[in-house]
Amino acid sequence: MNFDGTVALITGAANGIGLATALAFAAKGAKVVAVDKDGAGAEKTAAAIKAKGGLAIAKAADVTRSADVAAYVKATLDAYGRIDCFFNNAGIEGQVAPIVDYDEAMFDAVLAVNVKGVFLGLRHVLPVMMRQGSGSVVNTSSVAGLTGTPNMSAYVASKHAVLGLTKTAAGEVARMGVRVNAVCPGPIDTRMIHAIEAQINPADPALVEQKYHAAIPVGRYGTADEVAEMVLFLCAAGSGNITGAHFVIDGGRTATGGAVTVVTR
User: Fold this and answer.
1) Are 173 and 122 spatial neighbours (Cβ–Cβ below 8 Å)?
2) What is the DSSP string of 39-92?
3) Distance from C-alpha of 259 to C-alpha of 65, rounded to nearest angstrom
4) Which of these is catalytic: 72, 155, 212, 221?
5) Residues 109, 34: contact at Cβ < 8 Å?
6) Residue whose C-alpha is closest to residue 133's, from 167, 76, 83
7) Is the pTM of this model over 0.90?
8) Cα–Cα distance, 215 to 117 (Å, whole number)
9) b/e string for 233-260 if b means 16 or more Cβ within 10 A?
10) Which of 68, 169, 199, 260 could pair covalently with 180 via S-S, beta carbons 3.0-4.6 A apart?
11) How far apart are CA 235 and CA 91, in angstroms?
């Protein structure tokens, strides 16, 4: 997967999966635009790329604001003239609580970032790619977009919506040379899963982690680098006939229904 001369735009690039993907694109030769609400974090990502000889700029943006999204697209075009790969990744986990207790303002916040943010990214980036006659978008959904997860109603609803947006957008732009796919990570060893653990059991989040590991056939959380590799594949020439699809990266968890794996010899 060689991305020499291409431009990769990544939201949520300050940490976790976004950071890993920005670094992976840069390592393969792409010029990177690191976008995050945490502007200082985005700057650190860009600095890490430049320290290794790569090309990168950073842009602070609130993905729920159309003006901010338009601004990060403009900054990308001003710097590099095109957008070849768009990792539409920014997201938040929200609250862990039953629907009857879920905070309404938090529900709105999760849907704003995870759904409206993805929609606005598509709305502003797709026209650029359509004019080019080429481009690949990868949206971040989740295994929570495939099944229900008790006590995470906003997150689950938002990630189901991302898959709907992915399929719809893919059908709208396929004849224009633009592809739109989604990744569905399971628990990944980043800040987000550890924040969820702490909400579930503040007294012993490590116990929650142990139970999660037990329910994953490979016996561990995934890594951000593993997700990044899938994103790069979906942006590479070799995936040219793939659009409107989603790819699960969860160590077999959804395949087995989250059942605890018992090893026998």
Assistant:
1) no
2) HHHHHHHHHHHHHTT--EEEEE--TT-HHHHHHHHHHHHHHHS--SEEEE----
3) 40
4) 155
5) no
6) 83
7) yes
8) 31
9) bbbbeebeeebbbbbbbbbebeeeebee
10) 169
11) 20
Q: Which residues pair with 185 in a beta bridge?
A: 249
One pLDDT digit (tens) per residue for the chain, 265 residues: 899 999 999 999 999 999 999 999 999 999 999 999 999 999 999 999 999 999 999 999 999 999 999 999 999 999 999 999 999 999 999 999 999 999 999 999 999 999 999 999 999 999 999 999 999 999 999 999 999 999 999 999 999 999 999 999 999 999 999 999 999 999 999 999 999 999 999 999 999 999 999 999 999 999 999 999 999 999 999 999 999 999 999 999 999 886 544 444 4
Element (H, E) at 111: helix 104-111
Q: Which amino acid is at 163?
A: L
Alpha-carbon distance values, 186 to 11, 40, 145, 195, 255 (Å)? 19, 28, 10, 15, 11
Domains of the chain, each with CATH number or no CATH: 7-186+226-249 (3.40.50.720)
The set of residues, in sequence order, having a beta carbon less than 8 Å from that of 57 and lying 6+ positions away, is 32, 33, 34, 46, 75, 76, 79
Residue linked to tokens 């075009």: 77
- Token pair 């490590």 is found at 206
Q: Cα–Cα distance between 183 and 230 in angstroms, integer?
A: 8
The answer to whether 155 is a known catalytic residue is: yes
